[in-house]
Amino acid sequence: MAWQRKILRVDLSSGSVATEPLNMDWAFQYIGERGLATKYLWENMDPKVDAMSPENVLIFATGPLTGTMASTSGRYAVITKGPLTNAIACSNSGGKFGADLKYAGYDLLLLSGKSPQPVYLHIVDDQVEILPADELWGRSVWETEAWIRSQQQNPHLKIACIGVAGERGVYYSCIVNDLHRAAGRSGVGAVMGSKNLKAIAVQGTKGVTVADPKKFMQVTYEMKKLLENDPGRKGLTKLGTNAMMETMQEFGGLPTRNFQQVQFDGYDKVGARGMRVRKPNGHVNLITNKACFGCTIACGRIAHIDKEHFTIVNRKEYWHASGGLEYETAYAFGPMVGVDDIDACTFAGFLMNEHGMDPISFGVTLAAAMELYEMGVITREDTDGVELNFGNAEALTIMAEKTGKYEGFGQVLGLGSKRLCEKYGHPELFMGVKGQEFAGYDSRALQGMGLGYATSNRGACHLKHDTFEVDMDDQSGNGKAKPCKTSQDFVAMIDSTGLCLFPASAWGTTEFQQQIDAACEGDWNEQRILECGERTWNLERQFNLAAGLTAADDTLPPRLLEVPAPGGTAKGKVCELDKMLPEYYAERGWTSEGVPTEHTLNRLGLT
Amino acid sequence: MQRSLLIDPAKCTSCLQCEMACSFEHTGAFNPARSRIKIYEFEHGRYAIPFTCTQCEEAWCLHACPVEAITLNAQTGAKEVHQDLCVGCKVCTIACPFGAVNYDKETKTVVKCDLCGGDPKCAEACPTDAITYVDADWTGYDRMREYAVRTHLPSFSS
Amino acid sequence: MKIRVKTTGLLDEYLPPNSDNPAEIEVQTDVTPMDVVRRLGMPPGDKYLIAVNGDVVPQSEHAAFRLTENDTLSIMPPLKGG
Q: Which residues of chain A does C14 touch, with a Cβ-Cβ cutoff of 8 Å?
């Protein structure tokens, strides 16, 4: 009922495969997916180990609502220690893979050790095999999908895999499922690569039931109606997330040229509008929209590149459609690197999915490299002869491919922005937190975003809290701590259910609670589910503290703390983290050193 | 009036709510593996096409059945499999040129779309009207209207 | 008096037909952002982000702030990025 009550344990060192009952005490404390996997991670590894060592544990986890008819029920989490940050990695993905893992009968897949040879995991319900992947090693994500389907002659398989970037340990390599969805951040792809695990292919035929089917169908039907009528949802369906580009430009929070500016002249060419413009030769970037499993929003974009564009004019293999620009990809490949060529941005986006890399981290890393190049610190000798100026669309696409294939300067870019900036003696140019690069929001314009970036357990992240409303209403650092904390708990709850964040534009705690309560055994009220979220947040914090992180890591780069925004609605402002952070620790029930107090741990049952 | 499922692939986002609805209606669990309607995707998801039994007049399945386990529901026009009569010979799965009848290993009988007795759950669940349940005599009506406008009233925008 | 109205996202659809973005419109003196929202046919019950001449106008002032001649009023939908 909702949970499958079974987990799959695979030790890649010994090749052992076993199932065990889901720990229901933990399920009742953490719900599922992100929270539950964090508990399993905590109980199964030492947070101090090297993220790319066999001792790191890699977990794929679904939620109790994954695979049900609740809207947006396709999510799953990838939880591990992230090489990019050496902190907990709580990555999340949609597509169809998670649903099939659940339908195969598993709430969670726990991978330990390291395979002596490259392998892939093949799961069809109870049949679980570790199969040789020597013919797969070295192939791209897209080639890997095609090869496995052909090899297994099973069109129903859903596949999550890595490309060469993950094999070679690019610090922000990711796990791609269903060709263009991804567990994107913190280098989870490199963890999979470090275990010699190339892919997981799964088919599930067992289905999912719920505790109170009649109530569940009624409640989810009502929630879908609410979602249908929501203006935020309508925007996402029609325009996709890249409509944020126009709003951020207007607001003056659009990170440009490595956060040197907050607005970008070329914004409209690479935003949602740019995706709908008809070029003189008739080409339009956007083709249609697409949904993940169970989703009634369909924010996904399907796009194609102009066949006459320099990037693909002689490369027919890229003439097909694939995943189009999301806001984050567009920001990272547009304003962040000064490029206003939508075809170049879209092509680079294709490469991210083909080779398995996080576009945010890649774009921000390239931006830092560009700034260093314009300073004369990096030269053409370093960059294989490529001119790495801001605005150079060719540099963007050439470097995206080099990094994906781990060639030439791509190997340096594969370090990520923090390590690259340190390598060239300019650590202050790293735009991120705890080693993870910023998303497309400048926290001088959005103060609560700054607090969220600084305190997110997985490094800089725009998704783990939600202070958009208060940030856009009041641009001081006042009153940001409480909404940041409560939204972090709220998001952690959603991330533990198997549902997506985006229905939160129409659904509050009540709406999520009603669906959870109808699906899962037991009485789930609002307080209980938010407490599960808070528990998850504090457990992640405990993991990080045990891994060696401290309050000193809850910070922002000097550019945001000291250099006033040069324009926009927040012109002249810096990010007031020094004011917000102590308030935040107090809200959390943590010491002034950012450590959960005994009282807080007791209250949450974490001692 | 008799109604028929109308599929508009241009509207399909491949959310698979229809596959869940169908399997839930017939098996009590959300299980696309046991859905009688399937979505087919092409070119990285650019094209998503729902397909299922069209309740054809020829009814090869019905005529192929050696034990008359498939009958016509006069009200809905659906060709329905009676699982208590079906012997699992699978001859109907061979007879159907569309592949719309398939063997279900759980029940050891064949399964196919039966229009849920006149209240098809896939159409109810579809969030984009890619699947609708319309007057069987006029499945092309709306599309004809669209082309009437395009042809003769080009200044109207859709 | 004349003001300019700029929109983003789905709100573009509410600008007068065949106008640019920003669109120049004629309004009464002392008009408020919410007056313009209603005038353009945008749902008055929805939430909006409002800025005037590059400065944010908080929610609490959407119905009180008085616009002046040649102001640029930005009306944006609350939208999540991804």
A: none
First to last CA, chain B: 29
Name the residue facing A327 among C77, C78, C81 (closest C-beta): C81
Low-confidence ranges of chain B (pLDDT < 70): 157-158
pLDDT tens string A26-79: 999 999 999 999 999 999 999 999 999 999 999 999 999 999 999 999 999 999
Residue of C nearest to A330 (CA): C82
Cβ burial A406-418 (10 Å sphere, 16+ → b, else e):
bebbbebbbbbbb
Q: Which of residues 361-400 of A touch B (CB under 8 A)?
A: none
- What is the domain class of A440-604 according to CATH? mainly alpha
Q: How far apart are the first and last CA of chain C?
A: 39
Which residue ranges make up each domain of chain A?
Answer: 6-203, 256-278+296-430, 440-604
Does the distance separating the beta carbons of A291 and B15 come in below 8 Å? Answer: yes
- Our count of domains for chain B comes to 2
Say if A349 is an interface residue toward chain B (CB within 8 Å). Answer: no
pTM of the prediction? 0.97
Residue spans of alpha helices (H) in C1-82: 33-39
Query: In the CATH scheme, what is the code of domain A6-203?
Result: 3.60.9.10
Grouping H, G, I as helix, E, B as strand and the rest as coil, residue B83 is coil
User: Do B44 and B3 belong to one domain?
Assistant: yes
Res. C78: pLDDT tops 80: no
pLDDT on residue C82: 47
Same domain, B45 and B76: no
In this structure, what token pair is assigned to residue A121?
């995991």
Q: Which residues of A touch B29 (CB under 8 A)?
A: 206-209
Q: For residues B94 and B107, state if they share a domain.
A: yes
Q: Is the peptide bond before A213 cis (omega within 30 degrees of 0)?
A: no
Which residues does A515 contact at the CB level (< 8 Å), separation at least 6?
A: A65, A70, A216, A219, A220, A223, A497, A499
CATH of the domain at B134: 3.30.70.20
Mean pLDDT of A141-147: 97
What's the one-letter identity of residue A499? L
Q: Does domain A256-278+296-430 have CATH number 1.10.569.10?
A: yes
The pair of structure tokens assigned to A154 is: 């099973």
CB contacts, 8 Å: A209 with chain B: 28-30
What is the Cα–Cα distance from A144 to A81, expressed in whole angstroms? Answer: 25
- Interchain contact, A473 vs C58, CB within 8 Å: yes
Are the Cβ atoms of B33 and A323 closer than 8 angstroms?
A: no
Distance CA A499, CA A409 (A): 39
Query: In whole angstroms, how far apart are CA A254 and each of A268, A513, A557, A569, C35?
Result: 12, 35, 17, 11, 29
Bridge-based pairing state of the strands A322-323 and C2-7: unpaired
Tell which of A125, A126, A296 to mutate to test the B interface (max B CBs under 10 Å). A296
Q: What domains appear along chain C, each with residue ranges and CATH number?
A: 2-76 (3.10.20.30)
Claim to verify: residue B45 and residue B59 sit in the same structural domain? no
Beta-carbon pairs below 8 A across chains A and B? 92
Question: Which pLDDT score, from 0 to 100, does residue A34 have?
Answer: 98
In chain C, residues with a C-beta closer than 8 Å to the C-beta of A473 are: 56, 58-59
A195-221 pLDDT, tens digit per residue, is 999 999 999 999 999 999 999 999 999
Q: Please check whether residues B91 and B60 belong to one and the same domain.
A: yes
Residues B68 and B79 in one domain: yes
ipTM attached to this prediction: 0.97
Distance CA A324, CA A276 (A): 12
Express each pLDDT in C11-47 by its tens digit. 999 999 999 999 999 999 989 999 999 999 999 888 8
Domain of B79?
55-112
Across the interface, whether the CB atoms of A247 and C8 are under 8 A apart is answered yes
